[in-house]
Design a protein that fits this description.
The chain has about 700 residues and is mainly beta. Helix content is about 5%, strand content about 45%. It is built from 2 helices and 53 strands.
């Protein structure tokens, strides 16, 4: 009855999930039928509950499984043709994966394409409300912290990992293993054909993953002349690779898996990692050159390329080198690809399952013909969300500039859920859609069979067309509650009206309570009661200057915020750490604040950099820049240090600062009675109480 991916093996006409409303799959609006069973909810505005019962759309998305490669190829061709233009899918411009509007891809000096430089990575993660330190694996040493994770028992890739006896870090694309007791580097693993960016560990095994490309291309990515084609990378070296390594002694590679798709993110439960890859069709598109090739002829040529395409040009491919054996070919079987009733075929999401304790294989892949760039995981579910496709602005002209009459498109977010309760491949478990766009993975939270989703709603994230006289973005934020069920993820409750004219800067959900920070000039911290999924409501609001970009629980009734102080006009003044009292949700209050004038912290966009050690009530935050009191005139200079604070009742007490002789401090971990700080220049061990230096281990 069930297909290999947990989907019924059916023909292309049978629906395997509940009825759906209009959805966006792979960057294209797909109209599906409306659900006949509509849930009711109280829709509240900020600060009150209206008491008005309104109908909510089901939000469910119907999926279909291909039953053969012939039907897959036919379906993909037909789905793609209406959306192929002279520049490929949709017009040949790139869709950035973080905020803003669609922008043309501009080659940089290296020949790759970049989005706006001001945009921040969307891969921000943090630790769950339990906030207890996660212990190491089989070779666990003394009591130690982990790097910051969103949910308990779910590990996330990062630049450093520890089991208490050794510290495994990634520096300049190389893996370094440091023995804690001897303070020596015991191994280095260099992968010359891959710049390693993140690592996961389990016992004596490490899984290394590549950098992801921060631009999502609306069509095949350009081939840079300095990136030759490699096996398993159709169209050039733009794929991703995972490496399984043995770190019991001198690190050695056990296997490598190359996939023709960009690495998105991963989550690990026990020894099993789920790696999410995003791929695009490798069609032989041509582009207008302004001379021999016109836009009309390029569009006709591109349509012919789709009509003559083979199934291998649509599906991701792989190259595996493991255990002395090599293999390559199609990554996923046609029967394990599912899709919406209406879809574009412009992108596919593949989830690989890799057990670090076993030989590396092709990852038992499961694929959905959809798009996504945000991953959130619990010990039961893996969610992949997509909102960048809804930021498309109509384009006109050969240079891909916005048309004069371009109007922003209201944002939508599609969310796909996979069941990961077993050790085998994940089972697709339903999809849904909400209004608005996400901030990061903290915009999502699973609790007692429901998914809470915080989004900012407005035209393309508040984008205003050029020449528009409006000065205030027409935005607001909301929290939507989706129920898990046979019909996918269906909407059962919603509260909106948060931060009108602003956008979300931080979100955190703790059990039945939610916190949302919005900002434009001042920082409203909203507290939400989510105990009744069908009736979520705003309970309290705190308005202060500045904002928090990351929120972390630090004991009963207290939350710590890391962000930026700002003037009453909204001008940023430097990093701040704030302690909030949230015992009374109706009246949240700030108890204490530490401000670093002119500084900034990586925690503001990557919460992996944050450390809270509850055994000593210690908080560690890396800081860059700021005003140096020892500098004549109190000027600014390029400084970098780890700021160590102690929670003392309702106060934040500065314990001190840890500085490295070289490198930028990015992470902090606790092992026994030592604080270890990690930079790209080296590792430093300091006394946990007085911060005196005990060891310095250079990595360069």
């Amino acid at each position: 009855m069930a297909g290999k991916a947990g989907l019924p093996r059916v023909g292309t006409s049978r629906i395997v999930a509940g009825a759906a409303i209009a959805v966006v799959i792979g960057g294209v609006v797909a109209a599906a039928s409306a659900s006949s069973s509509v849930s009711s909810s109280v829709s509240g505005t900020a600060g009150q509950t209206t008491g008005t019962v309104t109908d909510l759309p089901s939000g469910g998305i119907s999926l279909v499984a291909f039953d053969s490669c012939e039907t897959a190829l036919s379906g993909l061709r037909q789905a793609a043709l209406p959306h192929i233009g002279p520049y490929g899918f949709g017009g040949g411009y790139a869709l950035t994966t973080r905020g803003g509007v669609a922008v043309p891809a501009v080659p940089n000096a290296a020949g790759t394409a970049e989005g706006p430089r001001s945009q921040l990575p969307k891969r921000e993660q943090a630790q769950d409300s339990a906030s207890a330190p996660q212990q190491g694996g089989a070779q666990s040493g003394p009591g130690h912290s982990s790097t910051n994770n969103h949910e308990r028992n779910v590990d996330e890739p990062d630049v450093v990992k520890t089991d208490g006896k050794r510290i495994v870090s990634v520096v300049d694309g190389k893996l370094k293993v440091v023995d804690v007791a001897s303070r020596k580097i015991t191994g280095t693993l260099d992968t010359p054909d891959l710049h390693v960016s993140q690592v996961l560990i389990s016992g004596d095994r490490a899984l290394l993953v590549a950098n992801q490309d921060h631009v999502v291309y609306d069509g095949p990515a350009p081939i840079a002349p300095d990136r030759p084609t490699r096996p398993g990378y159709p169209g050039g070296g733009w794929g991703s690779k995972v490496v399984l390594a043995d770190i019991s002694g001198a690190p050695k590679i056990l296997g490598t898996l190359s996939v023709s798709g960009g690495y998105v993110d991963a989550r690990q439960i026990g020894s099993v990692a789920r790696v999410v890859v995003r791929s695009q069709p490798q069609l032989k598109f041509s582009y207008p050159d302004g001379y021999a090739q016109s836009e009309a002829s390029a569009q006709q040529s591109n349509r012919e390329a789709a009509i003559k395409s083979t199934i291998d040009e649509w599906l991701p491919s792989y190259h595996l080198d493991s255990g002395g054996m090599k293999s390559e070919g199609r990554l996923v079987d046609c029967g394990r690809v599912s899709h919406a009733k209406d879809f574009s075929g412009a992108a596919m999401l593949t989830v690989l399952t890799i057990d670090l304790t076993k030989p590396l294989d092709k990852g038992d892949p499961v694929t959905v013909a959809a798009d996504g760039d945000t991953v959130y995981g619990t010990d039961q579910s893996l969610y992949i969300a997509d909102d960048h496709s809804s930021r498309i602005v109509p384009m006109r002209g050969s240079r891909g500039k916005p048309a004069p009459d371009a109007q922003p498109v209201p944002g939508k977010t599609q969310i796909h859920r996979f069941d990961v309760t077993g050790s085998g491949p994940p089972k697709y478990a339903g999809s849904g859609e909400v209004d608005g766009t996400l901030l990061n993975q903290y915009s999502l939270s699973e609790h007692e069979g429901h998914l809470r989703v915080a989004t900012t709603v407005g035209p393309a994230g508040g984008w205003i067309p050029p020449g528009d006289a409006r000065s205030v973005p027409q935005t607001q934020s909301m929290v939507t509650v989706l129920a898990r069920g046979d019909k996918g993820l269906t909407q059962v409750g919603k509260v909106d009206g948060l931060g009108k004219g602003e956008r979300i800067y931080a979100v955190r959900f703790f059990g039945a309570v939610g916190y949302v920070v919005t900002f434009r000039q001042v920082d409203p911290l909203y507290t939400l009661d989510l105990s009744q999924p069908a009736r979520p409501r705003v309970v309290g609001e705190l308005k202060i200057t500045g904002y928090s970009a990351y929120l972390h629980p630090v004991g009963p009734g207290k939350v710590l915020g890391v962000g930026q102080e700002a003037s009453e006009q909204g001008r940023r003044l430097g990093s701040q750490v704030s302690l909030f009292d949230i015992n009374n949700l109706a009246a949240p209050n700030r108890l204490a604040q530490q401000q670093i004038e002119g500084g900034s912290s990586e925690v503001e966009y990557d919460p992996h950099a944050f450390l809270y050690w509850p055994e000593r009530n210690l908080v560690v935050v890396p800081v860059m820049g700021g005003r140096d009191p020892n500098l004549r005139g109190g000027g600014y200079q390029a400084v970098n240090y780890a700021l160590v604070l102690r929670l003392d009742g309702n106060a934040l007490v500065q314990v001190g600062r840890v500085s490295h002789p070289t490198g930028t401090i990015r992470r902090s971990i606790v092992i026994g009675d030592e604080l270890w700080t990690i930079s790209d220049g080296g590792l430093m061990a300091s006394d946990l109480d007085k911060l005196g230096q005990r060891a310095w281990i250079p990595l360069r």
